[in-house]
Amino acid sequence: MRLAKHLAHAGVASRRAAEQLVFAGRVTVGGEVVRDPARDVGDADAIAVDGRPVGAAGHGRVVYILNKPAGVVSTAHDTHGRRTVVDLVKAERRLYPVGRLDADTTGLILLTDDGELAYRLTHPSFEVPKTYRAVVRNPPVREPALRRLRQGVELEDGRTSPAKVRRIGPGELELTIHEGRKRQVRRMCEAVGHRVESLERLAFGPLRLGTLPPGGHRRLTPAEVERLRAGPRR
Ligand code: URA
Question: Shortest CA distance to 140 belongs to which of 173, 116, 114?
Answer without folding.
Answer: 173
